[in-house]
Amino acid sequence: MKNYALPVAVGLVLGGLVHLTSTLAMPRLALVDAFARLERLGPANTVALVPNSTPFAAILPRMDPAFATAVCRYDLSNGAVRVRVPITPDYTSVSFYARHGLAYYAINDRAAGRRAIDLHLMTPAQRAALPEDEEITAADRLIVESPSMEGIVFIRAFVRERGVMDTVRARLAESICSPVS
Amino acid sequence: MRVILILIALAVGTLTGLGLTWFASARSNGFGAVQIGAWTAWPKSGTAESDPYARAAFARSGELPLELADGIAFEATSDDSGSRLDGRCDTRIAGRLPLARFWTITIYDSRGRLIDNAAERYGFNSSEVVWNIDGTVEIVLAPRARGGNWLPTGGRDRIGVMLRLYDAPVGLGTRSGESVEMPMISQVHCP
């Protein structure tokens, strides 16, 4: 019995290391994470409406059925992306997630202008490369820095009554998510 | 003999390591849980300071965490006395709700899917729910139709409830315990 004590002890220490490594690696190794699920909806840098969840089909688990949802998978490798979301009658919010799901920024209609949430999404390097003398600086436009080259813009609007779901969805479909020309 | 011992060490290591990871990512969304009654929230998981356990759990489930700047999501899988929520029972969620611009309450099955029902009723929001005169709310989760704020459970054995408070005051995610009033959950009738 004593013979096995050492290998088991070594094994447990090893187990701790395996646990830490696998936990840290999981966001990169997960095959069906949110980004992969949303890839089905369309190409990068376009806005796609997310079909409302039903008991039989849902793009992402545990979405809030009281919301209309649209999404833009962005790719900043060819430059910054402009995101413009029209304000809906109730609550409108835009959430930003990095490639592996890190929630790094969110804005809602309370913090935004009267008619739309309008911003430029770029990497820290792209922001640093912005010409300084450009008239349109931070005061005029909101700049959001993405920690990763790719990521998710999650656009959501509260639907107070079911009857207006289609109207709210149509409004969200007017959102823009496209490279800054 | 030595080879066998090394193999034992490797096997123990792999099993405990991956087992722990599997368990941790299925059960919890990381550190910093805020627990109020039967409700638990992980406010940090919706921020850039999200810890590795939270990131692993969300990557695995494919869910996107609710951003803290957007709102805070409380979930419950058991009632106030600690027994697991059972869709074959009648469960009462009653009381006052914390201050927020609005809230939604949604019922899911054990895999995070909505529960099929003829009324397509998957939850309530703060403007469609029927409020009591004293400002409290009472919602009943039950397998069979009933009056008032009824959420169909479809008779599933395991169910979960999510209460999402949108545009909630910043303090809600940091305060813990008694200072915030959350609705009580109790299973009132089990067949």
Explain the layout of strands and helices.
The complex is a heterodimer of chains A (181) and B (191).
Chain A: H1 2-29, H2 34-39, E1 47-50, E2 67-75, E3 81-86, E4 92-98, E5 103-108, E6 116-122, H3 124-128, E7 142-145, E8 150-158, H4 165-172, E9 176-179
Parallel strand pairs in A: 6-7
Antiparallel strand pairs in A: 1-2, 2-8, 3-6, 3-9, 4-5, 4-8
Chain B: H1 2-27, E1 34-36, E2 39-41, H2 52-61, E3 71-76, E4 90-95, E5 102-109, E6 123-125, E7 137-142, E8 149-152, E9 159-166, E10 184-189
Helix pairs in contact in B: 1-2
Task: Please describe the structure with a list of short key phrases separated by commas or semicolons.
heterodimer; A: 181 residues; Immunoglobulin-like; five-stranded antiparallel β-sheet; four-stranded mixed β-sheet; 9 strands; 26% helix; B: 191 residues; alpha+beta; Jelly Rolls; six-stranded antiparallel β-sheet; 2 helices
Q: Quick check: average pLDDT of chain A?
A: 89
Strand content of chain B: 25-35%
Gross CATH architecture of chain B: Sandwich
Into how many domains do the coordinates of chain A divide? Answer: 2
Distance between the termini of chain A: 72 Å
Helix content range of chain B: 10-25%
Full CATH superfamily name of chain B: Domain of unknown function DUF1214, C-terminal domain
CATH fold call of the largest domain in chain A: Immunoglobulin-like
**Helix- and strand-based class of chain B?**
alpha+beta
**Would you list the SSEs of chain B in sequence order as H and E?**
HEEHEEEEEEEE
Overall morphology of chain A: globular
Give me the CATH architecture of the largest domain in chain A, please: Sandwich
Helix fraction of chain A by DSSP (H/I, runs of at least 4) = 25-40%
Shape of chain B: globular
Individual helix count of chain B: 2
Radius of gyration over C-alpha positions of chain A, nearest whole angstrom: 21 Å
Assembly type of the chains comes to heterodimer
